[in-house]
Amino acid sequence: MTARPPAAVPASWWLPRGIVALRVRIFARVNGEQTLTLPNAAYGPDVFERVYAHPAADGRSAGAALSDLFWYWLSPGPEVHQEHLEPGPRYDDVAATTRRILAGDSAGHAAAAARVFARLLDTVPATRVSLVRLRDLVMPAWAEFAYELVFREPCPPRARELITAHARDVISALKCTGLRHPRRRARLTAYLRERVAAGDVPHALPASLTPAEQVHYLQGTFFNTAVVQLSEATAHVLLALARHRRVQDRVAADPDDDRYLTRVLDETMRLYPLFGIAHRITTGTIPLDADTALPAGSVVCFSYPDYHATGYERPDEFDPDRWAGQSAKDAHHIPFGVAANRPCPAWRISPIVMRAAIREVLRRFRLDSTASHTRSLPNRAPCLLLPRHLPPRPRRLAARRALVRSRDKAEDVTRGVRQLLLGTVMVLHARRQRPAARYFAAHPAGSPPPPGSCPVARPEDEST
Ligand code: HEM
Question: Where is this region: Disordered (predicted)?
Fold first, then answer.
């Protein structure tokens, strides 16, 4: 258990940290003892890079207890989510489809992002200050964007609502701020099933998947991962700008200058990488040093925050200017993963569309936040939006800032307890269901299941 803090330290400070530490221990135990986390005190960033890029670090799901938890969170259809497919022809087919759907010219993607954000921001009052949670604010816009990528047509409100409800449910469960709502997710599956059956998707879907799996593929990769990741990343950048007034003013002074905004994005994703860890299961021996090797079947967790903290002066400081004299390519900076081992297929498009979205926000609003900024962002980034044309009212603003700060601190305490409880419930539930273990027991070589035989529990059957 966590050590009790000195009596003089206020509970709002120690409780969330103590709970986070306890949660980390619970999740570490899920994986058992054959797990290695890199970098660590013995093996530094160079070993991290070498092992991550090693050809034998290529197992994705089979053989790691941690996979049961991820599959549980990502259901329905985790067995065909690109992130979790084992290497092989099905993976190649799925990855090629994702690349095709994401293809397109940068200007077109940026224009689409600016358009969906302009539509979203038209709904935010322009005559008064609004208090929002940035992640909730931006998610419907990214839902529309993802819909347009897949269907190549404007997103109807019903689809936007279904996608947003689904993505919100996945991310709340992943962060243990809420339980899963399988029925909510199933509503999007049903909608997509109809659209795919009607031939409404203008892209060739992976031929190696059954129609039901094609639906799950679209749902997992585009209407969960794309929406969640773009929403989280955008919320991080906007919150960083809201908390660093001078940086924000510099971006707003020349919003079309890509260079400085790119530095802000690079620094935000360095300090707040979306992935805490990525894991792989080794399929062959990987040397760690002259005397030690990782045997096949080991689970390796690659810690992004720890790697991103190595090789920099003042690594805990948010300083976009550190990128003025150095290229992100030459630094310990892998927000989209490593090129040699299944990097993010959206590594090119994501910064382009995020810059367009952020510009659109800054054109209309000044941002201000006194809320805490952590990598996992369980507070969903509370922030004040001040319409740019409104005259400043410093005393009113000071009162609102104080309110944002105290509400965030109070929520931090109750949220921490809630996360611990819900996280434990979900870990135990995932352990009982063992979706990945059951799937691989039925399909030992990661072979595709015959249609209708998938042993992964259907979301409707589950009791959360
Ligand atoms: C700023 C936004 C994003 C960030 C920071 C991000 C980050 C990452 C990272 C670090 C990985 C690699 C993890 C690993 O090594 O296991 C990854 C993989 C992946 N990402 Fe993203 N991502 C973002 C947006 C997106 C979007 C928009 C999509 C939409 C399709 C997407 C789809 C995927 C998929 C399918 C994978 C698995 C790749 C594979 O295993 O082949 N991501 N992402």
Answer: 440-464
Q: Using CA atoms, how far apart are residues 394 and 80, in angstroms rounded to an integer? A: 53
Q: What is the pTM of this model?
A: 0.92
Test site for ligand 1: of 49, 147, 229, 375, most ligand atoms within 8 A of the Cβ: 229
User: Span 62-277+346-443: which CATH code?
Assistant: 1.10.630.10
How many whole angstroms from 130 Cα to the centroid of ligand 1?
32
Q: Per residue in 278-313, pLDDT tens?
A: 999 999 999 999 999 999 999 999 999 999 999 999
| Nearest residue to 362 via CA among 386, 332, 381 | 386
The answer to whether residues 437 and 431 touch, using CB atoms and an 8 Å cutoff, is no
281: nearest Cα among 209, 342, 344, 346: 342
- In the structure, what pLDDT confidence band is assigned to residue 65 with cuts at 50, 70 and 90? confident
Cis? peptide before 391, omega within 30° of 0: no
What distance in angstroms lies between residue 336's CA and the mean position of ligand 1's atoms?
6
The number of the ligand 1 atom at minimal distance from the alpha carbon of 91 is 41
Q: Tens of pLDDT along 169-187?
A: 999 999 999 999 999 999 9
Angle among Cα 103, 276, 137 to the nearest 5 degrees reads 60
Task: Give me the residue label for tokens 């900076």.
Answer: 333
* Boundaries of every domain in the chain: 62-277+346-443
Residues in contact with 406: Cβ distance below 8 Å, sequence separation at least 6, in sequence order: none
